[in-house]
Amino acid sequence: MSRTEIVFWLAPVAAFFLLPGYLVMGSQILIVALFALSLDLILGYAGIVSLGHAAFFGVGAYTAGLLSVYGWGEPITGLLAGGAVAALVGFLVSFLVVRGEDLARLMVTLGIGLLLFEAANRAAPITGGVDGLSGVAIWKLLGIFPFDINGRTAYVYAYVVLLAVFVLLKRLTRAPFGLELRAIRENARRMPAIGAPVRRRLVAAFTVGAAIAGVAGALLAQTTQFVGLDTLGFNRSAELVIMLVLGGAGRLYGAVIGTAVFMIAQDYLSGINPVYWQFWLGLLLVAFVFFARGGIMGGLDRLAARWRKR
Amino acid sequence: MSQAIGVLFDGVAYGSLLFLVSLGLSVTMGLMNFVNLAHGAFAMAGGFVTVLAMTRFGVPFLATLPLAFVITAVIGAILERTLYRHLYRASELDQVLFSIGLTFMSIAGATYFFGSSQMPVHLPAYLRGQVNVLGVDLGVYRIFLIASVAALTLVLGVLLARTRFGAQVRASVDNSQAARGLGIDVDRVFSVAFALGSGLAGLGGALGIEVLGLDASFPLKYMVYFLLVVVVGGAGTIKGPLAAALLLGVLDVAGKYYVPEVGAFVIYAAMVVLLIAFPAGLFGRRR
Questions:
Q1: pLDDT of amino acid A179
Q2: How far is B10 from chain A (nearest CA, A)?
Q3: Is B244 within 8 Å of chain A by CB?
Q4: Does B77 touch chain A (CB under 8 A)?
Q5: How far is A286 from chain B (nearest CA, A)?
Q6: What percent of chain B has pLDDT over 90?
Q7: Which terminus of chain B, N or C, has less C-beta within 10 A?
């Protein structure tokens, strides 16, 4: 890690000590950042536009939540279980997604997201339906740290998981696998010519992305001790795409920074008036498409380039 | 038996509305490969034109329909000229983001001006009630709806098949490069087609207040349905979206009537299956 990166990752640690009143909000940001990272692998690196990524987040959340409702509240195994089930669903779905052209992919991911949402909505006896899944009770983390009301344990837990997945993804995207994904995004027709199995790589990327999304969902379920139907909703998928693009898709730091900026702005602006927030969000999106491709990270790059020229 | 006919009838009425709204989207996606998630916003705009004209200015219902068409067509033309035009060659992601942004703005705008409740529409007396046709009770308004859409479809069919403009549209959809080479001003054809499609969506939104309802969340609530009609029907034709819209309408109404506990599940499942079975749409040509 470079020096900037170490400073970057020390910032949440500083926030833990300096802003103890914001830990609940902080862990939300860390969890959604993890979720955004998972989409970054699929959208930013592999170039699959997904409008239903919340499906895997929700699957992970319900898996962890249901596990604890039925008597297994151990957090780390619950987290892994959430990731594993989401990975399985993602693996199965990936075959449908990889088949089609861009537009069909968009529609299939959207459709799967809506399908799972309806399924959870209708299966109220199991999932709690619109009321959400309550009665989630998570045991002490590592048998020592209870999940407290101030969210200290939750914050540290989410931070460690985020950092671990980030390091993993950084290695993965720098490995030949990550390079292949980027090459597929740039030109999927040429890849078979150099002997790269396009479909198999996309299936792998989609499955890994789904697994990470599932881990993020499980984290949310465990730290809030509740699973709502909105974990599967279209709005969550759409907002996630927005956060990723805001930060800069195809950049791991873009996913993290975009999430933080988006959620802090949302917290501040929707506190004033939720309708205004939606309007500004819409305007921001339109403006972004026209003027700020590459997001925050792209903008920083341009600034840095200008700096160096001087 | 009569019950089944009633469901079928409602489904056809619902489907013909979906068709009317989605036709413009089919042009956008077929002609310019533009994924316009904001299409439902045009339908909503048409609905609000009708509601405003009726409640504020006392315009009779039927007279508001041309208004809804013209005003949304103008809005569509303006947006096409100023915004959409620049994104035809943009990536799919950019188009999706842009049109989601537009959708959010339209929802927030509608909530700001009209609140988030359902808009009422008071149909004139001659469009209310039911008539008994061969032992089946059919809603008068739904008959009116099906008849209007059928008439419009015929007009559009003639427009596309017999006029110079129609030939230009077909040529541009089939191969825009060759069409350009032949001297067809594809950009202008598309501007007109976009305005026409927006107007039709507006008209559909106005006609649909009674059936689909109208509130600020309309663009998102029905987004999937409109996209679905186009993707299943294949973009850039009339026949494809018509068949897809009727199929979806009947499936959705039948699903909600016979298996209400499953809800919207039927339609989403049908969507995924159809997309997988027919990647290029029911009537689409493989490119």
A1: 83
A2: 23
A3: no
A4: no
A5: 5
A6: 12
A7: C
| Distance from chain centroid for Cα A69 | 24
Q: How far is A102 from chain B (nearest CA, A)?
A: 8
Q: Please state, in angstroms and as integers, the Cα–Cα distance from residue A135 to each residue in A71, A73, A116, A132, A174, following that order.
A: 10, 11, 22, 10, 42
DSSP A71: T
Q: What is the pLDDT of residues B146-196, one digit of tens each?
A: 999 999 889 888 888 888 888 888 888 778 788 888 888 888 888 888 898
Most confident of A252-266, B110-124, B258-272: A252-266
Q: What angle (nearest 5°) sits at the alpha carbon of residue B195, between those of residues B190 and B196?
A: 95
Best of A92, A103, A112, A122 to mutate (most B CBs within 10 Å, chain B): A103
Q: Which of B99, B113, B268 to probe by mutation at the A interface, max A CB count within 10 Å?
A: B268
**Sign of the CA dihedral B174, B180, B183, B188?**
positive
Q: How confident is the model at residue B287 (pLDDT cuts 50, 70, 90)?
A: very low
Interface test with A, best of B96, B103, B111, B116 (most A CBs within 10 A): B96
Q: Which of A91, A86, A195, A75 is nearest to A141 (CA)?
A: A75
**Do A115 and B100 count as a contact with CB atoms less than 8 A apart?**
no
pLDDT tens readout for residues B79-88: 988 888 888 8
Chain A residues touching B107 at Cβ < 8 A:
278, 282
pLDDT band at A310 (very low <50, low <70, confident <90, very high): low
- Residue B156 burial (10 A CB sphere; 0-12, 13-18, 19+): middle
Cβ atoms of B199 and B217 within 8 Å: the answer is no
* Residues, chain A: 310
- Minimal Cα distance from A109: which residue of B? B272
Residue B75 has pLDDT above 90, yes or no: yes
C-alpha A293/C-alpha A248 separation (Å) is: 8
Q: Are B83 and B98 in contact (CB under 8 A)?
A: yes
Question: Cβ separation of B35 and A119 shorter than 8 Å?
Answer: no
Whether residue A43 and residue B93 make contact (CB cut-off 8 A), yes or no, is yes
Q: Which of residues 94-123 of B touch A (CB under 8 A)?
A: 94, 96-98, 100-109, 111-112
- Identify the bridge partners of residue B130 per DSSP, sorted by sequence position: B139
| Model pLDDT for residues A215-243, shown as the tens digit of each residue | 999 998 888 888 888 888 888 888 898 88
Chain A residue numbers touching B93 (CB-CB < 8 A): 43, 49, 241, 245, 249
The DSSP string of A231-266 is GG-HHHHHHHHHHHHHH-TT-HHHHHHHHHHHHHHH
